[in-house]
């Protein structure tokens, strides 16, 4: 089983709909992240959380919100999806600030 | 803000040829990490460099961190088809929580 699990793996949604992407981890890490990947643009940080009570905006947080329901769970919401939010979304965890990041399998989101 | 540029964006080599990707930061980094993403997969950590001028090797892969801690490179000797994928560098400033990723270099290897 994967240490970092994302659901769903693929999703097609309509413009204006609310959608939630979920991430759970079994690594016991406090730090969790949401990244967005677009072709040619690498990975851009959307939000990150260092513990259940700590949520921070990343580089591209507009149009997104997050919830850290527990140490193991970190969900990303698009309140009103728009086509330019079509992308591959990755959740990641890390043990500390200067340690490696472990990525989930990704969620491919298409907004039509 | 902090930017991490990576070149080339894309490289297609014959199996057995060498490959290098370069990463440059607009600011001094406390450390740099390298990740590999196979086609259809997720980024997987390869290595972290911390010291100025540091060089690390993993079999055919050689990683370098510049003296000024603003640039880094990944060199693959004698590429194999299993090296196919996108290679990302990711840097972090001393005082920063954020791991900033480069745009990646996509490597294709002709058998």
Descriptive account of the structure:
The complex is a heterodimer of chains A (112) and B (111). By secondary structure, chain A is mostly beta strands. Chain A has no helices and eleven strands. In chain A, the strands form two sheets. In chain A, strands 2, 4, 5, 6, 9, 10 and 11 form a seven-stranded mixed β-sheet that branches. Helices cover 0% and strands 54% of the residues of chain B. Chain B has strands at residues 4-7, 10-14, 19-25, 31-37, 44-49, 55-58, 61-65, 71-76, 85-92, 100-101, 105-110. Chain B is globular and about 45 Å long. The mean pLDDT of chain B is 93. At the A-B interface, strand 5 and strand 10 of A face strand 4, strand 5, strand 9 and strand 10 of B.
Which descriptors would you attach to this protein?
heterodimer; A: 112 residues; seven-stranded mixed sheet; four-stranded antiparallel sheet; B: 111 residues; mainly beta; five-stranded antiparallel sheet; 11 strands
Number of DSSP helical runs of chain B: 0
Approximate shape of chain B: globular
Beta fraction of chain B: over 45%
Distance between the termini of chain A: 32 Å
| Secondary-structure-derived class of chain A | mainly beta
Question: In summary, what is this structure?
Answer:
Chain A is an all-beta fold and 112 residues long. Chain A has no helices and eleven strands.
Topology at a glance:
The complex is a heterodimer of chains A (112) and B (111).
Chain A: E1 4-7, E2 10-13, E3 19-25, E4 31-37, E5 43-51, E6 54-57, E7 64-70, E8 73-78, E9 87-94, E10 101-103, E11 107-111
Parallel strand pairs in A: 2-11
Antiparallel strand pairs in A: 1-3, 3-8, 4-5, 4-9, 5-6, 7-8, 9-10, 9-11
Chain B: E1 4-7, E2 10-14, E3 19-25, E4 31-37, E5 44-49, E6 55-58, E7 61-65, E8 71-76, E9 85-92, E10 100-101, E11 105-110
């Amino acid at each position: 089983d994967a240490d970092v699990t994302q659901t769903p793996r693929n999703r097609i949604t309509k413009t204006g709909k609310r959608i939630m992407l979920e991430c759970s981890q079994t690594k016991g890490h406090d730090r969790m992240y949401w990244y967005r990947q677009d072709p040619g643009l690498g990975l851009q940080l959307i939000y990150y959380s260092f513990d259940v009570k700590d949520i921070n905006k990343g580089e591209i947080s507009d149009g997104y919100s997050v919830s850290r329901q527990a140490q193991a769970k970190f969900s990303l919401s698009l309140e009103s999806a728009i086509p330019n939010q079509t992308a591959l979304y990755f959740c990641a965890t890390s043990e500390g600030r200067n340690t490696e990041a472990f990525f989930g399998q990704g969620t491919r989101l298409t907004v039509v | 803000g902090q930017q991490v540029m990576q070149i080339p964006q894309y490289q297609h080599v014959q199996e057995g040829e060498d490959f290098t990707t370069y990463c440059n930061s607009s600011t001094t980094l406390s450390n740099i990490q390298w990740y590999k993403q196979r086609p259809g997969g997720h980024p997987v950590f390869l290595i972290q460099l911390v010291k100025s001028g540091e060089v690390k090797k993993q079999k055919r892969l050689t990683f370098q961190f510049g003296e000024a801690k603003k640039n880094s490179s990944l060199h693959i000797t004698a590429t194999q088809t299993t090296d196919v994928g996108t290679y990302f560098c990711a840097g972090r400033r001393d005082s920063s929580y954020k791991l900033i990723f480069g745009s990646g270099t996509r490597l294709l290897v002709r058998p």
